[in-house]
Write a structure and sequence with these properties.
Elements: H1 15-25, H2 37-43, H3 47-61, E1 68-71, E2 78-84, E3 88-94, E4 104-109, E5 111-118, E6 121-130, E7 136-142, E8 147-152, E9 159-164, H4 183-214, E10 221-223, H5 246-253, E11 263-264, H6 276-280, E12 299-303, E13 306-310, H7 318-331, E14 337-341, H8 356-371, E15 376-379, E16 385-388, H9 405-416, H10 440-451, E17 465-467, E18 473-476, E19 496-500, E20 506-512, E21 516-523, E22 534-537, H11 557-567, H12 575-581, H13 591-603
Parallel strand pairs: 9-10, 10-11, 13-14, 14-15, 15-18, 17-22
Antiparallel strand pairs: 1-2, 2-6, 3-4, 3-7, 5-6, 7-8, 9-20, 12-13, 16-18, 16-19, 20-21, 21-22
The chain binds fe (ii) ion (2 copies).
One fe (ii) ion is lined by residues 226, 268-270, 343, 381.
């Protein structure tokens, strides 16, 4: 979307919080587009850290060798990827900080590729997976480098993870997408890119730090895509290689939190066009299904009682995603929770969410999600937060009046845009097309918007808790780095339960147990919630054993005695006890039930 000037039309329900931000940081927080780290740090008493970040920046920028940890196939595995300037390198894991008695020690042979060659320096892409780990702290070292640690969690009582969207490191670069077709322009491009990555990665690191303050025991970060900004088509015209996005990966991976905390990435439209994405992230159970031929396809992992299926929907062949989901579920039939992550916000509430490209993907994928009993779908792409009601059975009921994309874009742009220059923060898009318009094309456009509201797919549940819902919850993450924000749609969709945009980075914490899924979302400046806590409860039916009145899991003489007491009027059964006391199933509770139990005991 092009940067535009929008009229301030709404300060939404969060006017109080917004006003607080404006008074404390009106000059600090840009009204449109992104969060500048220097101003954000100044507004949040973090200036010293920012000065330190700037002082170290040249070293970080030129370091392509940050390790990246991703979850392994399950919680007892951990995957690693890194660049090395030597083709072979030792990788060691130990339970001891002095790296003695290693549990894993192996020479890793890296892969060379022109796309990871910087000037005369050839980098080698290395990766390995460490398995059979039990709960506890482990230390690891690449070659003779620094020793870092990671934790393997005990998931028997549940686990937590952090959900983020669109770090898109480098997106605040004002020259992004520019062809930079002269030496002078190229130098300027790289300078602005470096400044942008320095700012975005500072904010990204700040978000991760705040998230871990809130959820110190989090097992991993789930990122819904667009880890970095630069796509192949954004390459400066005179750049001679594919490495111009490497500085963005350096910024992304430089966050100290990521030395210890795994991150499960999703392929976003900004990640999909160059293979260095696959060199940086060693994801588990990679499938060819969903592959776009450059960065691989879908992948899955289990963690505790949950199955995570991460789709590469830059491949829009939804039949492949269907097959992948079926295969992943078949391989893990007993997982209590089934989660899908994909980049596009098929039920979001910002500028991208109503695009036919996105809603078409929705109507193709939702039936597959429902057939496979998916509980929650995580997405990003729209750089604004939203949470849906529980949704089930959506069907495509309207095609846009014209397949001509240009005409659609024109209508869409016209509705949300205004040429009037405005000042101050804008969080909700303008609304040029009025609800009572007489224009036929505008009326058709509004009918389309109404159709994709999916009013008929809304399941009635509690506002803060859904117990055994049939439907699916769809979460869309805001920008986690502040590198770019989109405005909310001027007409909030019927399917939305909560949404938020105040041009502040956010993150969510998800807590999982055998019976509950709980999500909370926080803004990083105050670390306060931006939405109510939402919980999905899975109540499992208690298992009744016929004759087991005491509920101790077996039938015994006491159960027969209780039946006798009931017959004699010495005690009254409740409904559950009545259900199991009719041992012979003849519809009455009588002496024959007690005799039946006694006979059964004698048989034993
Ligand atoms: Fe994005
Ligand atoms: Fe995106």
């Amino acid at each position: 979307m092009k940067k535009r000037f929008l009229k301030v039309i709404a300060f939404t329900a969060a006017v109080t919080m917004a006003a607080a931000m404006i008074t404390t940081a009106s000059a600090a927080i840009p009204s449109d587009g992104s969060t500048n780290a220097e101003e954000f740090a100044a507004a949040n008493n973090n200036t010293a850290n920012w000065e330190n970040w700037k002082a170290n920046w040249d070293t970080v920028r030129d370091n392509w060798e940050y390790v990246s940890i991703t979850p392994g196939s399950n919680e007892s595995e951990m995957n690693f990827a890194w660049y090395s300037q030597t083709r072979t390198v030792w990788f060691t894991v130990s339970e001891k900080e002095d790296m003695s008695s290693p549990v894993f020690s192996r020479v890793i042979v890296g892969t060379a590729d022109d796309s990871i060659k910087k000037a005369d320096v050839q980098y080698y892409a290395c990766r390995t997976s460490v398995s059979n780990l039990s709960a506890g702290t482990y230390y690891y070292r690449i070659g003779s480098g620094e020793v870092n640690s990671f934790d393997v969690k005990d998931t028997s009582d549940g686990f937590s993870f952090i959900f983020v969207g669109d770090p898109q490191i480098g997106s605040s670069n004002s020259m992004k997408g520019s062809k930079a077709d002269s030496e002078e322009a190229l130098a300027k491009f790289y300078g602005l890119q470096s400044d942008a990555v320095r700012s975005d990665s500072f904010n990204w690191n700040y978000t991760l730090t705040k998230a871990l303050e809130k959820s110190a025991d989090a097992s991993f970060v789930l990122s819904a895509g667009d880890q970095i900004q630069s796509r192949k088509k954004d390459a400066p015209a005179i750049a001679t290689d594919n490495t111009f996005s490497e500085v963005e990966y350096s910024g992304f991976l430089s966050a100290p939190v990521l030395r210890s905390l795994p991150l499960a990435p999703t392929v976003g439209n900004h990640d999909a066009s160059m293979p260095n994405y696959t060199y940086h992230f060693n994801t588990p159970n990679n499938s060819e299904l969903g592959s776009n031929g450059i960065v691989g396809g879908d992948y899955w992992f289990t963690y505790g009682n949950a199955l995570f299926m991460v789709l590469n929907t830059q491949d829009t062949n939804t039949e492949e995603h269907k097959q992948f989901i079926e295969e992943a579920v078949a391989a893990n039939p007993d997982s209590t929770w089934r989660f899908v992550t994909l980049h596009q916000d098929i039920y979001g509430s910002a500028e991208h969410s109503n695009e036919p490209e996105i809603t078409d993907l929705r109507y193709q994928l939702v039936p597959y999600f429902e057939e496979n009993d998916i509980d929650v779908v995580f997405s990003g792409h729209d750089h604004a937060y939203s949470r849906t009601l529980m949704l089930k059975g959506a069907e495509k009921t309207s095609a846009y009046y014209d397949d001509n994309e240009d005409e659609y874009d024109e209508m869409f742009e016209y509705d949300i845009d205004t040429d009037e220059e405005i000042s101050g923060p804008v969080y909700t898009a303008y609304q040029m097309i009025k609800d009572d318009t007489a224009d036929e094309k505008q009326k058709a456009y509004l009918e389309y918007l109404d159709a994709v509201n999916d009013k008929n797919a809304i399941e009635e549940t509690g506002t803060e808790t859904a117990v055994n819902p049939d439907g699916i919850l769809y979460m869309t993450a805001n920008s986690s780095s502040g590198s770019k924000y989109y405005d909310l749609t001027s007409r909030m969709q019927s399917y939305v339960a909560g949404r938020w945009q105040e041009d502040i980075p956010t993150y969510s914490v998800v807590d999982i147990t055998d019976t509950t899924f709980t999500i909370n979302t926080y803004r990083t400046d105050t670390n306060e919630k931006i939405d109510t806590q939402f919980t999905i409860v899975k109540e499992t039916e208690p298992e009744y054993i016929s004759g087991d009145i005491s509920g101790n899991g077996r039938i015994d003489l006491y159960d027969a005695i209780e039946i006798c007491k009931n017959i004699m009027g010495m005690r009254t059964f409740n409904d559950e006890e009545k259900a199991v006391a009719d041992y012979n199933g003849d519809g009455v509770i009588d002496l024959y039930d007690a005799i039946g139990i006694a006979k059964k005991l004698l048989e034993k």
